[in-house]
Amino acid sequence: MDFKLNEEQTAWQMKARKFAAEVLRPRSLERDRITDAFGTWDWDIIKAGSKLGFRTSCVPKKFGGHEIDFVTQAVVMAELAKADSAMSKAFSQCWKWSHLISQACTPEQQERYLKPFMSDDTYVLGMGSTEHIGGSDNRLPPENIKSGMRLSGVQDGDYWILNGEKAFIANGSVGKLFFLNVRTDPNVMMRDGVTTFVIEKDKTPGFSIGKVFNKSGWRFYQNAELVCTNARVHKSNILGEVNGAMKRSVGDNSGDMFGDLELAANALGFCDDAVETAIKLAKTRTQGGKLLKEQQNIQLKINKMAMLTEALRSYVLRTAWEHDQKIKGTNAGLVMNYSTFVGQEVTELYLDVCDQPGVELDEHADKLVRDSFIWSHLAGDTVQQIRVAQKMLK
Taken in order 369, 304, 317, 341, is the CA torsion positive or negative? Predict the structure, then answer.
């Protein structure tokens, strides 16, 4: 397999690298220090990245987007995450749901949702599935009618009345368009009774933003509650069929596949950052009268960091390439699970390299560790993530 980047992929990589170095990295620690959960967000960053195509890069060309392939997406995410993992995710979160618009919406819906998305640099997207009491049942629902999500939808003529809450929703406090999974038939198992509604924030009476969650890591990235109190949503805002949300499949661009690849590529970015920074530190800092690079303990730690990072790079690019080639059977959930292990191991080793006697805690290393541990509860907890592998046995 030849994973050499072509001219277009290299151009995107260089553009992302320049933006990351000049815009993201200089503001990374500054935003991370802010104590207010909502105050960490910076619209100037989003606007600047959007003008370069980082918000709309996955929209098909026929709608005015760039339609970059999965390899390019992985490369761009890694470059941005190398400067700040949470800032990278703020952009790629829009890719996931613009994929869904172009793949699963009707032509009328595509026109209605993609037009404002393409024209407004502050138009970001989100998906509401997780709930306070649902745990991670929403990803792999158990065979139990009472399990799963509780945000309810009841039909009222041409409208549906929605009541309930979603929690920890990505871009929840800043998004303008959300996809909400709603329990529209409580008398069947969740996979047979859920409908996806497209919620336009400023055009949906009864829809509001609740609590903005304060997190230890990924502080720039916004997570909030979405609250429906007799929210009225027209039937034209239903995505696909009523009660068909859990059965919907959009091929290689499915949300689960992209979401898993997205997180793995993001982890690759901050692992690259940790390795490069650790090497620079080892070449310049002394301890006990010797440069760190001359000490075997440090050599072993950096060797392991580099080894794991290069293995993750190969896995991420191969997974992305296989999806571009439409090779069936590739399980992106496995590379996501691997990235969780690698990301946390590499950042902890980096913290060990920085944590020398008489030296203050390295703020950058501390941030990378906090960001990496977000992977323990992304797309379900660690147990649910590993259970994704059961797809291999079907």
Answer: negative
